[in-house]
Specification:
Elements: E1 16-23, H1 26-30, E2 38-41, H2 48-56, E3 61-64, H3 77-83, E4 87-90, H4 96-99, E5 105-109, E6 112-115, E7 118-122, E8 124-125, H5 128-138, H6 142-147, H7 149-159, H8 161-166, E9 181-185, H9 191-197, H10 199-205, E10 208-212, H11 215-221, E11 228-231, H12 237-243, H13 246-251, E12 254-259, H14 269-273, E13 279-282, H15 287-297, E14 302-306, H16 312-316, H17 322-333, E15 337-339, H18 343-346, H19 353-372, H20 375-399
Parallel strand pairs: 1-2, 2-3, 3-4, 9-10, 9-14, 10-11, 11-12, 12-13, 14-15
Antiparallel strand pairs: 1-5, 4-8, 5-6, 6-7
Helix pairs in contact: 2-3, 7-17, 15-17
Amino acid sequence: MKLPTRRAPDQAPPGIVATARVDRQTRTLLARLQPGDIVVLDHLDMDRATARQLVDAEVAAVVNVTSFVSGRYPAQGPEVLLAAGITLVDNVGADTLGLVRDGREVRLHEGKLFVAGEEVAAGDLLDQRRLARELGAARGGMTTQLENFNHNSTEFLRREEELLLHGKGMPDLNVDLGDKAVAVVVSGPDLEEELRGIKRYLREQRPILVAVDSAADVLRSHGHKPDVIVLSSPQSSQSVETRLSAKALKAAGDVVVLVDRGAGKTPTDSLERLGVRPLLFETSASAEDAALLLAAGGHAALIVGVGVHATLEDFLDRQRGGLASTFLARLKVGPRLVDARALPEVYSGRVQPIHVFLVLLVGVIALAAAIAVTPVGQEWLDDLDGLFIDLYERIKGLVT
């Protein structure tokens, strides 16, 4: 008799199988991501801010049609993605954007992308060893970037001459910044740590809080309400809603939306549906630089930069505005700007009344102890002792 044989179960194909999210515009793509997605995008030199948004979205892999690190400068995004365990593949070619349909199930294995079992694209797997090698080579490319800085600064100054030199074009805020301390809060890589470092300063001095994009929600999670919110120029009404909560937008005294020069009408329908009437700020500066310029134009006495870009690598890593925008904005702000990382070193806290009382109390006790050991002090103590006894007897008589 022939015994039945057990059929081996079908083995799952190797690699990552997930839904593909495809878009040439990274900002639009970020609004649609779900945990476990395989992202297919076109993003030369992945910056840290975008990388953190991808990590927060909990994507499984990122497939880039171009290079994560082109060699122009040490892009900081790939390191953030690899540290989060996200698979990275780049240089798959621009045709991939047309070959992979958004929402389709795909498989990624050893740098190759499959749709319905058929290979549609292949690229280079980016690991820590390759990344370290490319970042080392890219540091030499910073020289070229700095050589272009003079031209870029001249061009930016030409476009923003009225704004930088005369303060023209800024919206009139309802929140008064004049002669007050202002904290400009940006979703930088160390924002959470910096907020904890200046917690005492924020509690005691209560500066005006100007939040840039998603930093408003970070402030709310730390128990602070942003007074002014500055939003990057939205590509669609959905992008505004997804990167910031409605509670933060409604609670702010002013919501400022940046408008690219010559871009025409900026979609703000989602804000108006929430009952928020945004103020438009036409500028080619980044949202971070625009927030600093608003604080300076509002005659703030002190500007504390929280989460702002502070190093040369940070400036080069930005995808919008660039080094020229930041450099000229910092010149406009001048000596009023203090980095939050330095603030704990120069701010020791405000003296509280209880502290003064305790110092006085300790002084009185020390003085009384010093007098008590003298002959005159002994006589005073004897007199006080008799006085207390007499007072006690009188009170006792009144009670009984």
